[in-house]
């Protein structure tokens, strides 16, 4: 009888302890997930849920219907958003593991920059994010901190000495195949009046500009003058006060800084060739330069080299991280906390001043790109 009572008391105590533990777990919604080295505040998950919601809004097929009434990539929008938010949040743990694996750590300067970026972005994002439960600490971890670590791991893997190092020969080939080096002067074919209104040039005015710019192009083509000399002549003739010669080295396949018809024109030209042309409401004299003369400088500058690496390998790296996050098992999820936040909480906020980039999209840029009280 005593043994039975003792057994009954033991079972009851075990039940009470289990219930107490369950109750504690269900009420502690200050964190979303954790492993041995990092506890991720729930605010990070909320931020990623918000970002995934914003992203889904741009992917919906019917702009007249709410995003949550539609499917995204063959999933209900809600499922898609929640899956993305969970993956983005797990990426923080994946990146932390990668930092340790590669013996990387943030420098004092990087930590200072992270803080500065967070301060600047939080000033405009806080009014939106705080009402959803995202603190500055969580924003820092999901945004600037993530961005910096992403870039650091990417460079360590694909840069010199990395496990996936891209050799100079490949960088050289990519640069010379995809980039264009050119210089030009330009004249707008519109008049701006004192009241700010704009009117297009008359045919007579356009003809005068064409004659002037055709003459400039002929002088450079015949090597009588350089692009710098005609730019200075044009500056004086048009009574400008700023430098008129513009120079650029761009990947025109991806750049949004120049009109498509300029790319078409430059693609039709040979290195050293000069042309005058009307392009997107302006008249230009443009010279296509020999891109191979820029290669050495581009590969020797760390920032330029990293930009090339990002163009070549950012997508691959992003996919690898995404895959690693989806299969990541070294994690304890606070499912009760995660399930208590749903995409529908953002329905009235389809746009805002908060940075719309998720940790994943912020990261891609980088490869070119931070408890209810403690969230």
Task: List its salient traits.
55% helix; three-stranded antiparallel sheet; disordered N terminus; Peptidylprolyl isomerase; Chitinase A, domain 3; 375 residues; disordered C terminus; alpha+beta; 2 domains; elongated; signal; four-stranded antiparallel sheet
Describe the structure.
- Keywords: Signal.
- Residues 352-375 are annotated as: Disordered.
- It comes from Caproiciproducens galactitolivorans.
- Residues 1-25 form the signal peptide.
- This is Peptidylprolyl isomerase.
- There is one protein chain.
- The protein has 375 residues and is α+β, with helices and mostly antiparallel strands.
- The chain folds into two domains: 32-165 and 304-367, no CATH class; 180-293, Chitinase A, domain 3.
- 55% of the residues lie in helices and 12% in strands.
- The chain contains 14 helices and eleven strands.
- It has helices spanning 2-27, 42-59, 77-101, 108-129, 136-142, 144-158, 168-178, 203-221, 227-237, 260-267, 295-300, 302-326, 335-339, 359-367, and strands spanning 31-34, 39-41, 71-72, 75-76, 180-188, 190-192, 198-200, 246-250, 274-279, 282-288, 332-333.
- The strands form four sheets. A four-stranded antiparallel β-sheet has the order 8-5-10-9, sandwiched between helices. The chain has a three-stranded antiparallel β-sheet with strand order 2-1-11.
- Strand 1 (31-34) and strand 2 form a beta hairpin.
- Helix 3 crosses helix 12, helix 5 (136-142) runs parallel beside helix 6 and helix 12 (302-326) packs antiparallel against helix 14 (359-367).
- The protein is elongated and about 80 Å long.
- Mean pLDDT is 89; it is low at 1-26 and 362-375.
């Amino acid at each position: 009888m005593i043994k039975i009572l003792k057994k009954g008391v033991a079972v009851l105590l075990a039940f009470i302890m289990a219930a107490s533990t369950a109750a504690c777990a269900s009420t502690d919604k200050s964190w979303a997930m954790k492993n041995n080295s990092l506890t991720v505040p729930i605010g990070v998950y909320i931020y990623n849920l918000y970002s995934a919601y914003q992203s889904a809004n741009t992917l919906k097929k019917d702009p007249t219907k709410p995003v949550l009434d539609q499917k995204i990539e063959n999933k209900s929008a809600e499922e898609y958003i929640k899956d993305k938010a969970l993956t983005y949040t797990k990426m923080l743990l994946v990146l932390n593991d990668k930092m340790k694996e590669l013996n990387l750590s943030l420098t004092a300067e990087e930590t200072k920059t992270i803080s500065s970026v967070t301060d600047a972005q939080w000033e405009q994002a806080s009014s939106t994010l705080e009402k959803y439960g995202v603190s500055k600490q969580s924003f820092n971890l999901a945004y600037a901190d993530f961005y910096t670590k992403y870039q650091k791991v990417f460079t360590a893997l694909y840069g010199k000495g990395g496990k996936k190092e891209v050799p100079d020969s490949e960088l050289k080939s990519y640069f010379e195949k995809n980039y264009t080096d050119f210089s030009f002067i330009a004249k707008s074919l519109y008049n701006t009046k004192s009241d700010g209104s704009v009117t297009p040039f008359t045919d007579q005015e356009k003809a005068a500009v064409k004659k002037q710019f055709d003459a400039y192009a002929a002088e450079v083509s015949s090597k009588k003058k350089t692009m710098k000399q005609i730019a200075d002549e044009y500056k004086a003739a048009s009574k400008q006060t700023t430098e008129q010669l513009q120079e650029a080295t761009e990947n025109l396949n991806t750049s949004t800084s120049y009109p498509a018809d300029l790319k078409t024109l430059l693609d039709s030209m040979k290195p050293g060739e000069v042309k005058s042309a009307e392009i997107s409401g302006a008249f230009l004299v443009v010279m296509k330069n020999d891109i191979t003369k820029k290669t050495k400088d581009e590969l020797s500058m760390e920032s330029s080299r990293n930009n090339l690496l990002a163009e070549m390998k950012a997508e691959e790296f992003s996919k690898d991280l995404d895959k690693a996050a989806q299969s990541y098992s070294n994690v304890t999820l606070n499912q009760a906390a995660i399930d208590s936040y749903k995409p529908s909480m953002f329905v009235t906020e389809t746009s805002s001043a908060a940075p719309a980039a998720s940790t994943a999209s912020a990261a891609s840029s980088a490869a070119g790109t931070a408890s209810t009280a403690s969230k």
